[in-house]
Amino acid sequence: MEARQVFRELREGKIRxxxxxxxxxxxxxxxxxxxxxxxxxxxxxxxxxxVRFDTAExxxxxxxDEAETLPFLVPRKIVLxxxxxxxxxxxESSRIEHRPERLAAYLAQPMDTTVLVFFVPHEKLDERKKLxxxxxxxxxxxxxxxxxAEELVNWVARRAEKQGRRxxxxxxxxxxxxxxxxxxxxxxxxxxxxxxxxxxxxVTAEAVSALVxxxxxxxxxxxxxxxxxxxxxxxxxxxYDLLKQREEPIKLMALLVRQFRNMxxxxxxxxxxxxxxQMAGQLGLHPYAVKVTADQARKFTVDRLARLLSELAELxxxxxxGQVEKTLGLELFLxxxxxxxxxx
Length: 344
Fold this sequence. Notes:
This protein has 344 residues and is α/β, with parallel strands linked by helices. It is built from 17 helices and seven strands. A five-stranded parallel sheet has the order 2-3-4-1-5, with helices on both faces. Strands 6-7 form a two-stranded parallel sheet.
């Protein structure tokens, strides 16, 4: 099931005896664990009600012994297990012995007084394993994947609404442009903006611009936008700001290479009929990053992107061999690119 379904079940009071959560969105995993704790335990009893393990450090027998032990002074307890070997294809430690057959027997008859949760920080489960098949047949696997672009925007808006504030659509877009798609960062920045807006206040794009610092990677997104729009002054202003922040030209060039390469891949995958969500899986990008990259890629031809990547490869060699001064070399590349245009 998807993350939204399991959160809906929690709101409705439905709690399963075991879960196998997988995916790359750690914020949603942590939020799920927090919601479970809120539903099942009082704050003063959580030390007795919550037990944590890692299959890289603890044998499965120890984990299941705990799961099968009745809780003390609380009606139900939660056993949280971080795992990369039982349900994924991670390498098993020679020091730790696991008996998967015992877990399979437990999943067939789980304890009513325990909620056993495995968190697997991998994009996919290992479908070849019997444990994965057992968990799927019980409909207990949860995919904590990055939110699609539209859902991420709605999530930020809802977070502000829960605090009695409103975020203008343009403010949310500016926040995503500046902070990126990491939900931990977005949550922190949204809370800061809501605090600044005051009770029943509105968060504006101007407030976001003033209060949220743009990370180097997000500045490179803007650089490519300005390059495509042929706005040379803005390109240079962004570049000089990054230098003032002591960003290395070689690091900035590597980020440019990655962005131009992603734009090229997005164009090619789009021509093959891939959806944004499928592109995100293929490229290892957040769906919102795919949306932004696709918008930028429309302003460049495939040939132009290929030439830019070739030029950057030559510049990388020249910079690293001392043939050109790093700061000046990247500045001249930006000037040439902005002057020549995107599609030429």
